């Protein structure tokens, strides 16, 4: 596995080694010891799988009391995946990074606790999105921030008007969204 820190170095793009021939392929998607060496000492407690049609935008979501680190990947289709630094004491507070994740490149993105996360489905056939979480989902602790906030100026690589849930359409502006007073410690 190749681990590449992005412009916000705590967010890491993982590219697996793929072994394939005319019969198909094999790849290792996770190895705890390597992950700890390159991303930190985190344990995953929950796996999730979603399917979304083209044009769906989910996010930007985060939790404050039970912040989730997420290791995300796409197993069908393509998404533009985004992480926004919500850690007030971070030199990259309020900055974002993004990566195109798809079934062909088989890349994964590590989004640590302390970040808001979202994705936009770019592929016509939709996308299947899978992710591991470092904490359990806590419905009463979830925040949604506006995907189109001008202070963030995220280039979502839109192929049309995004479709949003009501919760995401009513998301908070970045300057009104609660942030982490300190970087979550794990």
From TrEMBL:
The record's Gene Ontology cellular component field reads: cytosol
Q: Which family does it belong to?
A: Belongs to the dTDP-4-dehydrorhamnose 3,5-epimerase family.
Q: Which PANTHER family match?
A: DTDP-6-DEOXY-D-GLUCOSE-3,5 EPIMERASE, THYMIDINE DIPHOSPHO-4-KETO-RHAMNOSE 3,5-EPIMERASE
Species of origin: Halomonas huangheensis
Give, as in the UniProt entry, the pathway in which the protein acts: Carbohydrate biosynthesis; dTDP-L-rhamnose biosynthesis
Q: Mind telling me which Gene3D superfamilies this protein's record contains?
A: Jelly Rolls (2.60.120.10)
Function, please? Catalyzes the epimerization of the C3' and C5'positions of dTDP-6-deoxy-D-xylo-4-hexulose, forming dTDP-6-deoxy-L-lyxo-4-hexulose.
Q: Which SUPFAM superfamilies match?
A: RmlC-like cupins (SSF51182)
Q: Name one GO molecular function term.
A: dTDP-4-dehydrorhamnose 3,5-epimerase activity
UniProt key word DNA-binding: no
Question: What are the EC numbers?
Answer: 5.1.3.13
Top enzyme class of this protein?
Answer: isomerase
Task: Tell me the keywords, alphabetical order.
Answer: Isomerase
Which residues are the active-site ones?
Answer: 61, 131
Q: Which Pfam families does the entry link to? A: dTDP_sugar_isom
Q: What is this protein called?
A: dTDP-4-dehydrorhamnose 3,5-epimerase
Judging by the UniProt lineage, the source's domain of life is: Bacteria
The answer to whether the entry has keyword Amino-acid biosynthesis is: no
Which BP terms in the Gene Ontology apply to this protein? Answer: dTDP-rhamnose biosynthetic process; polysaccharide biosynthetic process
Which residues of this protein are annotated with the site description Participates in a stacking interaction with the thymidine ring of dTDP-4-oxo-6-deoxyglucose? Answer: 137
The catalysed reaction is: dTDP-4-dehydro-6-deoxy-alpha-D-glucose = dTDP-4-dehydro-beta-L-rhamnose
């Amino acid at each position: 596995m190749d681990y590449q820190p992005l412009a916000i170095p705590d967010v890491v793009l993982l590219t697996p080694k793929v072994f394939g021939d005319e019969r198909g392929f094999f790849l290792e998607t996770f190895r705890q010891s390597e992950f700890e060496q390159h991303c930190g000492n985190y344990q995953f407690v929950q796996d999730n799988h979603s399917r979304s049609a083209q044009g769906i935008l989910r996010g930007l979501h985060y939790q404050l009391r039970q912040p989730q680190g997420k290791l995300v990947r796409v197993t069908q289709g393509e998404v533009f995946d985004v992480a926004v630094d919500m850690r007030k004491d971070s030199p990259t507070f309020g900055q974002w990074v993004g990566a195109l994740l798809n079934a062909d490149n088989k890349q994964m993105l590590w989004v640590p606790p302390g970040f808001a996360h979202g994705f936009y489905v770019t592929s016509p056939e939709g996308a299947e999105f899978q992710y591991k979480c470092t904490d359990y989902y806590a419905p009463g602790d979830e925040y949604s921030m506006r995907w189109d906030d001008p202070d963030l100026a995220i280039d979502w690589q839109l192929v049309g008007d995004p479709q949003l849930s009501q919760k995401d359409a009513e998301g908070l502006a970045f300057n009104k969204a609660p942030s982490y007073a300190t970087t979550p410690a794990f």
